[in-house]
Write a structure and sequence with these properties.
This protein is globular. Helix 6 crosses helix 7. It has a 5-stranded parallel β-sheet with strand order 3-2-1-4-5, sandwiched between helices. The protein is of the alpha/beta class. About 45% of the residues are buried. Helix 1 links the parallel strand 1 and strand 2.
Length: about 220
């Protein structure tokens, strides 16, 4: 059985991506990050999803991006609330964490090389997203090229890394539909940018999630404030 590393935040998209990777027959190694985010609650969901999916191992890496700040998720900056969905991708929002996916994928790449796991799954989408520059296919393709230039496996030709993005051209509603077909339990996931016991229903992430479930025609299994 081939191995794959999956970036697992505990959110809807990463959980769906993990379910897709499992359905393709990979032995899964999940990697999550405790990076000083205000919504550390997502890590509880990452653990629950990892268990339910049946990953071989789940690595949680800790470092503190609050030292750099610059984001409402890692600094003393208010998270935007009650924004209209159609306005979310007009500009890069303050919830963007500088270079986050590059940092995450770099850790995942190192983990993957030690495991000889040449498929790395990440749950980014160009369709329903908050304007983040590191969710675009151009970025993913550039990182994949770099991964095969910057690793022993890539240079010696013992393995070629692929950055797998099964949700890249799916709306969030279509991602939910795909996850449901794969038996994913969305009650285990967490999307809210706030760190409360219940999701706020007002941040961009909550609003995108709620709109997606409404489009699918089912209730979000989470209980909101």
């Amino acid at each position: 059985m081939s191995r794959a590393v999956v970036l697992l935040s505990g959110g809807l998209d990463s959980a769906t991506t993990a379910a897709v990777a499992r359905s393709e027959g990979f032995e899964l190694y999940a990697i999550s990050f405790d990076y000083g985010q205000r919504h550390t609650r997502e890590l509880e969901s990452a653990k629950l999803v990892a268990t339910s999916i049946g990953v071989k191992d789940h690595l949680i890496i800790s470092f503190d991006l609050r030292a750099m700040g610059g984001s409402a998720l890692t600094d003393d900056i208010n998270v935007p609330l009650d924004r209209k969905t159609e306005n979310m991708a007009e500009t890069i929002p303050i919830t963007y964490v500088p270079a986050r996916n590059t940092i995450f994928l770099s850790f995942a790449l190192g983990y993957a090389e030690t495991l000889k796991a040449y498929d790395i799954f990440i749950g980014v989408s160009e369709v329903d997203y908050s304007g983040y520059p590191d969710c675009r296919i151009e970025y993913i393709e550039a990182f994949e090229r770099m991964a095969n230039l910057a690793t022993k496996a890539g240079i010696e030709g013992t393995g070629r890394f692929r950055i797998r993005t099964p949700l890249i051209d799916l709306s969030k509603a279509d991602a939910i539909r795909r996850g449901l077909k794969l038996g994913l339990d969305y009650s285990l996931t967490w999307s809210c940018y706030m760190g409360d016991k219940k999701p706020c229903g007002r941040c961009d992430s909550c609003k995108l999630r709620l709109a997606a479930f409404a489009e699918v025609g089912i209730d979000d299994p989470l209980e909101y404030m």
